[in-house]
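Just scan this pair:

***
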Amino acid sequence: MRLKGLLPFIFISAMGFAHAANETSSIRTPAGQIISLGDSFTDMENRMKLSPTSMITHEIIEGKNSALAMDYRYEIENMIYTITIINDQVKKIEWLNTDQDIKDPLKKS
């Protein structure tokens, strides 16, 4: 009976771990420079030396505060990096390996 009540919590926790696996605190640019959380937007731009493939602006609301967030997407070799800038600082770095074979559960092999 108790396990049944914990199942939603376990499921939500597992989802959080899966999402966290695609976040990192720093990346290396093709030129060998490091971009880390807390770097300024100017530092990121100077170190990346690439134009982003896309840029999306959206509002982030935390409690009573709101801020403008800008997501810059870069495609480097087999990786897609999304760098989120808030208040002129790198706040989040997400990555996706495009070589991973992601299978559609509805599609038969």
About this structure: The CA atoms of residues 58 and 69 lie 5 Å apart. Strands lie at 23-24, 26-28, 34-36, 54-62, 65-76, 79-86, 89-97.
